[in-house]
Amino acid sequence: MKRTLSLLVLVASLSAAAENSVPAGTLSSSLAEWASTSAASPATAVQQFTLGNGMQLIVQPDRRAPTAVHMLWLRVGSMDEVDGTTGVAHVLEHMMFKGSEKLAPGEFSRRVAALGGLENAFTNRDYTGYYQQIPSNRLRDVMELESDRFAHNQWPDEEFAKEIEVVKEERRMRTEDNPRSMLFEQLSATVFQSNPYRRPVVGWMSDLNSMTADDVRNFYRQWYVPAKAAIVIAGDVDVEQVKAWAEATYGQIPARAAVQSKPQQEAQQLGIRRIEVKQPAEQAFVAMAFRAPSIRNVENLDAQDKDALALLVLSAVLDGYDGARLERALVQGQERVADSASSSASIMGRGPSVFVLSGVPAKGKTAAQLEQALRAQVRRVAKDGVQATELERVKTQWMASQVYERDSVMGQAQGLGNYWVMGMPTNADELLVKELMKITAADVQRVAQRYFGDDQMTVATLVPQPRAAGQAPRPAQGAASDTLEH
Asked: Does the keyword Signal apply (predicted)?
């Protein structure tokens, strides 16, 4: 499952939201209506508890259908690994399906299916998660299964020997056979030099080749402790009943000391960084990453938080809907420079953030020409600002994305889990939307002027190489997500 943070829906899927701007002057009334409908009644309000062993419980009642989503979130991901065992967080996610003291390998999934449920798991830089979507009257059953797996995961070495080969093949298919994935992997390793975000979530192949079963067991014992975990449940449930079940299952797991990740601040960048990635491919590709601030505190935003939000708006102005600035100027314009062009602002995470401009040069155009054209669009905003109608459209679509997410029990649970990982309150969505509405054209112009200098930029260029005789064409799709499914 690929999870897009509620906050980042604006960038990732605005084109799927309403296509037309609202008339000028109606946004404030629309926001007021949104805010009034977002206030939950006591019967549907999110509630958060701390179990006796330190594990968190977050419950979102939603009685519209007799279904529930049960998720276990761990505040541990690839950024918590050490060099030499990269990819171990993701490998452990795979091994969690291979048995416990009570269950044989594969039996967990068979039992969830017998309950009428669907299940999966995911790992990224910041977290690991496991989920089941089941009829709400089987919630207690999956809580017993998941709490047992969390507390008593175990498997024989031969299961690891088989599964590590599965993970290696996943790396080959998702990264090594995808030129753009290879480029973004190299880009991250160049942008981040002292921060663990430099490591790929799937791990370096050399580390996977040398990984042992005990490497995975040690990571499990170190990080899978109650104080690093949260249970998130959304759906047709009674809060007090869920709390009692949680204490009877997860609450019986003994508390253990939690490992504290050491802060690893990224070193100051001292100039442009450039890399070339040579891969068999049909077209060139260019990606530019600019160091950017992150959102850390949604309840009392400081200057860095506000700049991060303004960068999110800038990204949406550039590439947040069909016919946005990059598409109009670079793909559809008379001087067509690109076959495609995009922007993204990854402003939320436990580690540092980046703003990325990327694209595919049009026939007869070079990667260098596209690089300059992309930067020119940001310079245009820095010089001339943005129009009020552009801001209105972006903000309206963001409100729409929040409404759409409420229609999904899974979306509600995912959002709550994501915000818990980031140390944010359960109402972070509402707080962030309200802060977004305060972003002005002057704010967007200011961040366009501030964060796109040469000394903040790393450029990666895909240099197409001829294929070996008989080699099949490699995928042309974009890079694999930083979030890996089981």
From this structure: yes
| 47-252 and 264-485, same CATH topology | yes
Q: Tokens representing 154? A: 């175990």
Which alpha helices (DSSP H) does 96-138 contain, by range? 107-114
pLDDT cut 70: percent of the chain above it: 87
Domain locations in the chain as residue ranges:
47-252, 264-485
pTM, rounded to two decimals: 0.89
* Rounded (to 5) percent helix, strand, coil in the chain: 45, 20, 35
Query: What are the two backbone dihedrals, phi and then psi, of residue 458, each rounded to the nearest 5 degrees?
Result: -125, 130
* Domain 264-485 annotated CATH 3.30.750.24: no
Catalytic residue among 93, 163, 185, 327: 93
- Quick one: which H or E segment has residue 49? strand 47-50
Q: Alpha-carbon distance 226 to 56, whole Å? A: 8
Q: Look at 11 and 359; give whichever has higher pLDDT.
A: 359
Give whole-number Cα distances, 342 to 174, 285, 318, 347, 436, in Å. Answer: 21, 12, 8, 16, 21
47-252: CATH architecture:
2-Layer Sandwich (3.30)
The 10s digit of each residue's pLDDT in 32-78 is 454 444 455 666 799 999 999 999 999 999 999 999 999 999 999 99
Of 176, 184, 178, 358, the closest CA to residue 285 belongs to 358
Strand ranges inside 138-247, DSSP E = 229-235
CA–CA separation, 196 and 212 (whole Å): 21
Q: Is-catalytic flag, 93?
A: yes
Residues 6+ positions from 71 with CB-CB distance below 8 Å:
129, 130, 131, 231, 232, 233, 413, 414, 417
